[in-house]
Amino acid sequence: MHSRLPALVLVVTALSIAGCGGSGKASSSSSSASSTDAGSTGAGTASTAATAPASPTIASGTPLSRSRLIAKADAICQRLSAELSASPTISTKQELIAAASRRTALEQAALAELSKLTPPGSMAHDYQQLLAGRQTVIEDLKKLGEDTATGNTRAEDAVYASSASVIRQMAATAQRNGFKYCAKLG
Fold it and tell me: What is the distance between the alpha carbons of residues 30 and 133, in angstroms, rounded to a whole number?
């Protein structure tokens, strides 16, 4: 565990500062792949079960303008980033497990807020990918906490690979659509 802790902290930190983002759909209990508009592919989190969480849905209602959506979503992402930056330094396995749980809760709250925004039609597909990517990050954080608690280092490797791919896709999709804070990775 001692040699894995720095890498584990890096992944949790990277996941936590991903802000809003891209594409991909997976869970801690499924293997899947998804693609963005640009055609890149990201691996989902690998595991042995065969169920996947439902992808978050975009709110129905009057669509926001492009600039209004970006402003509202970026405000949510900026606040999430500030909350995650306030996290204490992680130096033990127990602290890492607690941080993964806290960060999962913060990510879920941000996803709930982001899901209430209705994008303009021209951004609907990418915005749905942003929400699906955030759901993947949440599932990866949950899995990371579980794997750390059980000492399952083989499963952690799959989480690392999935998370890195999803985070890159999230940033690319967010940047392509003009998001500032939702595209930052740290």
Answer: 15
d(CA 159, CA 150): 14
Determine how many CB atoms are found less than 10 A away from the CB of residue 45: 27
pLDDT tens by residue, 110-163: 999 999 999 999 999 999 999 999 999 889 888 888 888 888 878 877 787 878
pLDDT band at 41 (very low <50, low <70, confident <90, very high): very low
Helix (H, G, I), strand (E, B) or coil at 33: strand
Q: In which region does residue 184 sit, left (phi positive, over 0), alpha (psi from -120 to 50) or beta (all else)?
A: beta
DSSP β-bridge partners for residue 34: 42
Distances (CA, A) of 115 to 50, 69, 70, 158: 25, 11, 13, 27
Is residue 112 within 8 Å of residue 73, measured between CB atoms? no
Answer for the pair 100, 56: CB distance below 8 angstroms, yes or no: no
Angle CA(37)–CA(115)–CA(82) in degrees, nearest 5? 95
